[in-house]
Design goal:
Layout lengths: L2 H8 L3 H20 L3 E6 L1 H13 L5 E4 L8 E5 L17 E7 L8 H10 L7 E7 L2 E7 L3 H7 L2 E2 L2 E2 L1 E5 L11 E8 L4 H8 L4 H9 L3 E3 L2 E2 L12 E4 L3 E11 L5 E8 L1
Antiparallel strand pairs: 1-3, 2-3, 4-6, 4-9, 5-6, 7-8, 10-15, 11-12, 11-13, 13-14, 14-15
C-alpha cells in the first residue's frame, strides 16, 4: 500500500490527513536515513489516529513518550533498524525536556494561566506536552528545541513573576488524577445513556451534545447517540470533563446494566 492509499484509508478529514502525512514523513526518515525520527507532541485524539495508521503500516518499530508514565500528550518516535524502540527516549538525544516554573505561595495560578503564557511567547501547542501544576510550581514538558525560548522569554504568568529552570525528567512531581466514583445503572450501553449517567444529565440532553459534536469516545468524535460503549472506554464532553467506564458488572434485579464510572474532577 503506497502513501496515498494509506492516507485515503486512515484519515477522516483534511486536518487529520496532514497530520498523518507528516507522521509518514518521519517514518520514512527513520527507514531511509537510518536515524531516529520524532513527531511533535500528539493530543490523545491525534495519538489514536497515529496508532491506526501504524497498524495499517504493519506496526513499524516505534514508541510513544510524554516525559512520564501516563502522560496525556506524547511524542511518537520511530527507531531505525539499529536501535530498539525502548531506547528512543533515553539519554541526551531524547526530544522531550522538562522545565520547572516556581512562583509565590497563594498566587492562584491555573493550568490555563501557564498554557496561555507559554503560548504568548510564540510557542505553538504542538511543542508543549503536559503541564503538571502543584503548589508554588508548575512542571512543563516541552520539545527540547523549545526549552531555550521559554527559559529566556517566560518570566511572568498572569500578573505573577515566575522563575524558570530546566529539570531532569526524574525530578517531575506527578500526582495521580483526582477522580470520583459513580455507581449507577443504565437501560442500555448506548453512548447517550452512559454519558447521561457520567455527566448527570437527562438522556435527551446527552444525545443532543453527542449529535452536536461535543462528545468524544476514546478521544474520537462521535455524533451517533446509539454508539456502543464498553468497559475501559473513555468518554469526554467539551465543558463537562471526562470519565472512564471502570466496570460493567452485570444486570440489576430490574434488568438494568450496572456501571462503575471514574469521573475526573
Amino acid at each position: 500500500m503506497n502513501k496515498t492509499e494509506l492516507l485515503n484509508r486512515c484519515t477522516r478529514d483534511g486536518e487529520e490527513r496532514l497530520l498523518l502525512a507528516r507522521v509518514l514523513d518521519k517514518l520514512e526518515l527513520a527507514r531511509n536515513r537510518s536515524v531516529p525520527a520524532y513527531t511533535h507532541f500528539l493530543s490523545p485524539g491525534e495519538r489514536v489516529a497515529v496508532e491506526g495508521l501504524l497498524a495499517a503500516c504493519g506496526h513499524p518499530p516505534h514508541a510513544f513518550f510524554g516525559g512520564f508514565e501516563g502522560a496525556e500528550r506524547t511524542v511518537c518516535g520511530f527507531a531505525p533498524d539499529w536501535m530498539e524502540p525502548e531506547d528512543l527516549f533515553a539519554g541526551e538525544d531524547s526530544p522531550v525536556s522538562a522545565l520547572r516554573l516556581t512562583f509565590r505561595a497563594g498566587a492562584g495560578l491555573t493550568h490555563r494561566d501557564f498554557l496561555g503564557s507559554a503560548l504568548g511567547v510564540g510557542i505553538t501547542r504542538e511543542k508543549l506536552g503536559d503541564l503538571l501544576v502543584g503548589e508554588e510550581r508548575c512542571d512543563l514538558l516541552v520539545l527540547k528545541e523549545t526549552a531555550p525560548i521559554l527559559l529566556s522569554q517566560l518570566s511572568q504568568v498572569g500578573r505573577e513573576s515566575v522563575k524558570v529552570r530546566p529539570i531532569g525528567l526524574e525530578e517531575l512531581e506527578v500526582r495521580p488524577p483526582e477522580v470520583k466514583l459513580i455507581r449507577d445503572t443504565v437501560a442500555t450501553l448506548r453512548l447517550d445513556a452512559v454519558a447521561a449517567s457520567g455527566f448527570s444529565l437527562a438522556r435527551s440532553k446527552a444525545a443532543g451534545l453527542i449529535e452536536s459534536g461535543r462528545v468524544t469516545l476514546n478521544h474520537r468524535e462521535v455524533v451517533k447517540p446509539d454508539r456502543a460503549v464498553s468497559e475501559g472506554d473513555v468518554v469526554a464532553c467539551k465543558g463537562l470533563g471526562k470519565f472512564m467506564v471502570k466496570e460493567v458488572s452485570g444486570l440489576s434485579k430490574k434488568g438494568r446494566t450496572m456501571l462503575v464510572l471514574e469521573r475526573y474532577v
